[in-house]
Specification:
This protein is mainly alpha-helical and 187 residues long. The protein is 56% helix and 5% strand. The protein is built from seven helices and four strands, in the order H-H-E-E-H-H-E-E-H-H-H. It is elongated and about 70 Å long. It starts with a helix and ends in an 8-residue tail after the last helix.
């Protein structure tokens, strides 16, 4: 399709969705290029996890972070934020593993029982990273998908519900507490 017909298609989508034309219409009408990128997200309810041992590697692991682990719709603008939090959390687990390797000859004493504990394995530390980061990213993914559904809904009942929902959610503080609460770093 040529750019003009794509522009008309985009403008029609915006009008059909009930988006306020005053704000977005002029931007679409004055644009000379359009890109249909789609919105993708991974199902956050994966039972296989984000880490795997690489076959025939002698115990080496690969783990996912950021969009590779939990691509999410853009409606909360949290993709990069969550990727940075993943990176920090994963780096701290790698640092802990390296510290364990440096002192692997001396087991850690447990203060409660007096028994010696072995340092956590690298696989165990990767699982801790996953367990720490899974709940916040799954929560944000689901909230972003819900908001995306509301924001891109067709004209009529859904668009009126959307406008009322956002007005009420903003006035009584739900938007800040529920939708932005998951954006607070959880490392």
């Amino acid at each position: 399709q040529d750019q003009e017909s794509v522009g008309s298609l985009m403008y029609n989508r915006i009008q059909n969705a009930g988006v306020p034309d005053v704000q977005v219409g002029p931007i679409v009408q004055n644009s000379d290029r359009f890109f249909e990128l789609g919105v993708y997200f991974h199902n956050p309810f994966s039972f296989r996890g984000w880490s795997r041992e690489v076959k025939e590697s002698g115990g080496r692991f690969v783990t996912l972070a950021g969009d590779a682990a939990h691509a999410m719709p853009p409606f909360l603008g949290q993709g990069s934020n969550q990727a940075i939090q993943d990176s920090y959390c994963l780096a701290s687990k790698i640092f802990q593993h390296n510290a364990n390797c440096m002192s692997e000859s001396s087991p850690v004493s447990s203060s409660d029982s007096g028994e010696e504990e072995q340092p956590k394995t690298f696989q165990g530390l990767l699982k801790e990273y996953e367990n720490t980061r899974w709940a916040p990213t799954a929560s944000i993914t689901l909230k972003a998908a819900f908001l995306g559904y509301l924001e891109t809904g067709e004209a009529g009942f859904l668009s009126k519900f959307r406008d009322t929902f956002f007005l009420v959610a903003g006035k009584i503080g739900i938007a800040r507490k529920v939708f932005l609460g998951a954006a607070t770093p959880k490392l």
